[in-house]
Write the structure tokens for this entry.
Amino acid sequence: MATANASSRSGAATAVLTVEDLSVHYDTHAGPAKAADRVSFALQPGERLGLIGESGSGKTTVAMALMRLLRPPARIAGGKVTLDGRELLSLNEEDLRQARLRDIALVPQGAMSSLNPVMRVGDQIVDAIRAHSRGDNRNDISGRVAELLRSVGLDPAVAQRYPHELSGGMKQRAVMAISTCLAPKVIIADEPTSALDVVVQRQIMQTLGRLQDGLGAAVVLIGHDMGLIAQFSDTIGVMYAGKIVEIGPVRQIIEAPKHPYTRLLIDSIPGIKKKQKLRGIPGLPPRLVNLPECCSFHPRCPYAFGECKTVTPRQQEVAPDQRVACHLYPEHDRLPERPAATEVPA
Ligand SMILES: Nc1ncnc2c1ncn2[C@@H]1O[C@H](COP(=O)(O)OP(=O)(O)O)[C@@H](O)[C@H]1O
Ligand SMILES: [Mg+2]
């Protein structure tokens, strides 16, 4: 597993992707839903960032903003995104078209259904290559398609097949071949293994890792399964209600999570070695148009106290490269024992 530069994550100067205070709002009748609220992180070349959070926490919104694929009622309400030295949010459509796939590529959520059902897989890869690059040598293209299929663990003969002739895992691989056809510097994979069985999930993650290593690309892996994300990532960012509430190197996050929500996500991973009581996360994710005041996690937080309802917590660096937005710090140096009285049955 690559550990590329995770320890220098804060080194924005060398980063391939820097996201600063990115905010995305959906304009709704009830007011703006802040689906991404001042999201910040830096990604080094080759780094694997896992972005985790419950459904509705804003992960796909961030992915779509980074691809500049948001459509109304979504709008970018602020922030700066620098991709390989270029300000992404101000690129015009033509530059964007060039940047997509070549610099930054998305394996979209539900990607398997994004394949065109009436077109052979190979033709779809050729289309992607042609749409995003000029002057490719036509004679080379079938060789390139075969190479791409091999790079995702598929037989080149799959080029002749239609999507309905492939299993779910094979379709996901075909989508990965399309997404990486121009050797992007950053790959965003949005829940690439949901809807696949556990064995296939693991194989797909291994393929993604190999593909990334081969390309030297950085990856943002989006998911809601802490076990899967932790196995893959160098760095973990935890999203709650549109905000990154904690981010840091994977070991520190798993062994010493600082945010109560991170702790609850880790406790919700089922153990395999010993039987343990599964702990759910109490309550439901909040509605974004009507967020709880200040720390939006406070109604579900076993540790909440007065200040959490009156002052919005700022991000603080609590350990090397580990940032958290929580009022327990800096008073505490680690997350205290979970208060027993607030345990909620799973
Ligand atoms: N088209 C839309 N109109 C209004 N709100 C939306 C729309 N799409 C998403 N949202 C809001 O944005 C939030 C984040 O959605 P999303 O980024 O898809 O979350 P995730 O990928 O973490 O499940 C949702 O909770 C929802 O409130
Ligand atoms: Mg999503």
Remarks:
- The radius of gyration is 21 Å.
- Residues 6-116+175-246 form a domain with the Rossmann fold fold (CATH 3.40.50.300).
- The mean pLDDT is 90.
